[in-house]
Amino acid sequence: MADVQKLSIPDLAAMKAEGKKISMITAYSYPQALVVDEAGIDIILVGDSLGMVELGYSGTTPVTMDEMLNHIKPVTRAVKRAHVVGDMPFMSYNISIEQAITNAGILYKDGACDSIKLEGGQDFAKTVEAIVKAGIPTFGHIGLTPQTAGALGGFKVQGKTLDAAKRILDDALALDDAGAFAIILEAIPRQLAKIITQKVKCITVGIGGGMECDGQVLVLHDILGLFKRFTPKFVKVYANAYDFELNAVKQFISEVQEKKFPTDEFTFTMKEEVVDELKKYAGF
Ligand code: KIV
Q1: Which DSSP category does 235 fall into?
Q2: Non-local CB neighbours of 10 within 8 Å, separated by 6+ positions
Q3: How many Å lie between the centroid of ligand 1 and the Cα of residue 219?
Q4: 156 versus 12: which is more confidently predicted?
Q5: pTM to 2 decimals?
Q6: Is 254 found in the same domain as 230?
Q7: For 203, which DSSP code?
Q8: Which active-site residues does the annotation give?
């Protein structure tokens, strides 16, 4: 991509103001980031979903700061246009505000991402405010928060009752007041997401939040059909990359076994007289 301009937070805010939908996807590696950036995605999240889709953990809670950094760095090296968000792993911001600022600073400075994201609403508004005051743009995440899904009764829709919906609306307002420039709304009824989107100044990005959010995010491996363990209701699968890869590798294995690869096209040769001399040298 020649002469591409990096998307700034004011560019993203202008998209909300103009009613232009914002696209966001996860990526965890250099090649993945090259592809999604070239495709024209607006925001790339190096999410802690990394734990499940790339590292083989059963959830996101085991993911460490080092693992996040190891995946944020190659993504930021690849990206020319998209805004890159680095996700703060569980227990990297939950202990104290000082701990949260220190770890946000590590992802932002060493990872060279454009913002950080953390999960939590009213309880984390002061943390968000402090990180923003320290100069680090911050993305919130409310509704279904995977790091604490156990406490929410599992991976379930949130905010369906009036009380629960009021709590999530108040979470959104608290993060907005704290200075978050964007909030992910995960697995909540579309009517609630619409009210939040109309009430807050910041950008809302839905994942199972319905059409009225300012933008939409999904996990790359889900849309590519690469992660087969489970597929939530809000995921649309656009490709079958798992079978595509499986078939390519199976074809390679059978061509090796049947001596069909490598043909001359994939082979180097040297002059016959050199071969003859070499054979003599080798004692044939
Ligand atoms: O970690 C992640 O990929 C996320 C998305 C589900 C929004 O937080």
Answers
A1: P
A2: none
A3: 7
A4: 12
A5: 0.95
A6: no
A7: E
A8: 186
